[in-house]
Write a structure and sequence with these properties.
It is an enzyme of class 4 (lyase). It is found in: Cytoplasm. Its main location: cytoplasm. Its EC number is 4.3.2.1. InterPro entries: Arg_succ_lyase_C (IPR029419), Argininosuccinate_lyase (IPR009049), Fumarase/histidase_N (IPR024083), Fumarate_lyase_CS (IPR020557), Fumarate_lyase_fam (IPR000362), Fumarate_lyase_N (IPR022761), L-Aspartase-like (IPR008948). The chain has 20 helices and 6 strands. The protein is mainly alpha-helical and 482 residues long. The protein folds into 3 domains: 100 residues, Fumarase/aspartase (N-terminal domain) (Fumarase C, Chain B, domain 1); 248 residues, Fumarase/aspartase (Central domain) (Fumarase C, Chain A, domain 2), CATH 1.20.200.10; 102 residues, Fumarase/aspartase (C-terminal domain) (Ribonucleotide Reductase Protein R1, domain 1, Orthogonal Bundle). A two-stranded antiparallel sheet has the order 1-2. Strands 3-4 form a two-stranded parallel ribbon. Strands 5-6 form a two-stranded antiparallel sheet. β3, α9 and β4 form a beta-alpha-beta unit. α3 crosses α7, α7 packs antiparallel against α20 and α12 runs antiparallel to α13. The longest helix is centred in the N-terminal third of the chain and has 37 residues. The chain is elongated, with a radius of gyration of 31 Å. The N terminus is likely disordered. Bound molecules: arginine.
Length: 482
């Protein structure tokens, strides 16, 4: 299947101006500009496979219900098999005169099998047909995205495991706050991706309902069997209101919202990779295959891929707003506005799929510079809170302990050293103004002030102690089924 076929060329292109499927009522043809403006075939041909699948289920139901004959069904099946092959091989002649994917395929079917092709649209409208196609298409896209999230997670867990005990500064306000491990930091992104997967899986439930049978908007007077079509197409249930079935695109909006959140998470990770890779920070290096050079500055190695992930998040957010805006003013039921749902939707799925694919690889292309991370931990008093907590455990009220440590930090600033470099006496002198602080300090404070001591002490569920990071990884693997 190809997106690049030029409409109007190829074996079955019509040479005479063909009659449109609905042209009987009209006295003049549309201009070329209007034709191009109203046609969706250049982009909705991506749903051809789903369109054929939906039509085959519909035809099977029509035959089962005696609405069309068994021979009609056989003809439709034969014609559709040929059309599917033509599309697969890039031989199908998409024609702008036939407006959209639905009319293009129906017209070709009629050319191939005659009257049976003309009977296919019995009890159906393009309104319920297109809604069905989009849902089938989106269901496939969600399944692909869920598989790719799982792949990304597997890689993330590998790297997190390697660095479950690698210390780095944790930041708040981009200022050194407290020691964490790099594995713990990566596991934060694992948790985000877990919620992303949940959102897509949940959205899939509402995507997976069958609009077909709603016809144009009011249902149909043929004795159709919607449950049969739903089960043929793997839908969990039918849409229960015909007006709603053909008109709402909330499921597509939900998908775009889930996509916007996923991209937002990956954009944050990208921003961190970019920052960490800056020589000013130097926490990581990124494999060359994700970077490019500069055409003027020979020394440059730029993190283009994460920068583009961050940039592409903008277009995904834009698509969400586009679909919300598309929907908000539409009276029931179907309006042609809805044709505009496809490009943002397709673009969103494409962007998410490519981004996840790249990320699964990129995450293993991170080279951690553990010395630089540790070096950064010795600037910024990362264990100051541990010192305060020590005093609290020895009986000093927390506010007093906070004040005592603030004085010690000020003294360290003046001396130009980090807290662990003070002698016990120096620490006591620095805290002298806070009654009860100095006498509570003992030599055991130096174990508390080390990075390892600080990390190991945060050993509850969700904490950064290496043993807890390993437990989080094991829990994640068990959740994912190994
Ligand atoms: N191409 C149209 C769309 O994408 C199909 C439905 C058209 N229905 C109609 N009554 N014009 O929405």
């Amino acid at each position: 299947m190809t997106d690049t076929t030029t409409p109007g060329t190829g074996a079955n292109a019509s040479t005479d101006a063909p009659a449109k499927a609905w042209s009987g009522r009209f006295t003049e043809p549309v201009s070329d500009l209007v034709k191009r403006y109203t046609a969706s075939v250049p982009f909705d041909q991506r749903m051809a496979r789903q369109d054929i699948r939906g039509s085959l289920a519909h035809a099977k139901m029509l035959a089962k219900q005696g609405i069309i004959g068994a021979q009609d069904l056989a003809d439709i099946e034969r014609g559709m098999a040929q059309i599917a092959g033509e599309i697969e091989r890039g031989e199908f002649a998409w024609n702008l005169d036939d407006e959209d994917v639905h009319l293009n395929i129906e017209k070709r079917l009629t050319a191939l099998v005659g009257d049976a092709g003309k009977r296919l649209h019995t009890g159906r409208s393009r309104n319920d047909q297109v809604a069905t196609d989009i849902r089938l298409w989106l269901r496939d896209a969600i399944d692909q995205i869920l598989a790719l999230i799982a792949e990304f997670q597997a890689k993330l867990l590998e790297v997190a495991e390697t660095h479950a005990g690698t210390p780095m500064p944790g930041f708040t306000h981009l200022q050194v706050a407290q020691p964490v491990t790099f594995g713990h930091h990566l596991m934060a992104y694992y948790e985000m991706s877990r919620r992303d997967a949940e959102r897509f899986a949940d959205c899939r439930k509402r995507v997976n309902r069958l609009p077909l049978g709603a016809a144009a908007l009011a249902g149909t007077n043929y004795p159709i069997d919607r449950e049969f079509v739903a089960s043929e197409l793997g839908f969990d249930e039918v849409c229960f209101n015909s007006l709603d079935a053909v008109s709402d695109r909330d499921f597509a909006i939900e998908f775009c919202a889930a996509a916007a959140l996923l991209m937002t998470h990956l954009s944050r990770l990208s921003e961190e990779l970019i920052l960490w890779m800056s020589p000013r920070v130097g926490f990581i290096d990124l494999a060359d295959r994700f970077c490019t050079g500069s055409s003027i500055m020979p020394q440059k190695k730029n993190p283009d891929v994460p920068e583009l992930v961050r940039g592409k998040t903008g277009r995904v957010n834009g698509s969400l707003i586009a679909l919300l805006t598309l929907m908000k003013g539409q009276p029931l039921a179907y309006n042609k506005d809805n044709q505009e749902d496809k490009e943002p939707l397709f673009d969103t799925a494409d962007t998410v799929i490519d981004t996840l694919r790249i990320y699964a690889d990129m995450i293993t292309g991170i080279r951690v510079k553990a010395e630089a991370m540790r070096g950064a931990l010795s600037q910024g008093y990362a264990t100051a809170t541990d010192l305060a907590d020590y005093l609290v455990k020895k009986g000093l009220p927390f506010r007093d302990a906070h004040e005592a440590v603030a004085l010690a930090v000020r003294a360290a600033d003046v001396k130009g050293c980090d807290l662990p470099q003070f002698s016990l006496d120096e620490l006591r002198i620095a805290m002298a103004h806070v009654p009860g602080a100095a006498e509570r300090l003992g030599t055991d404070i130096f174990a508390v002030l080390t990075v390892e001591g600080s990390l190991a002490s945060r050993k509850h569920v969700g904490g950064t102690a290496p043993e807890q990071v390993r437990a989080a990884i094991a829990r994640a693997r068990a959740d994912r089924g190994g």
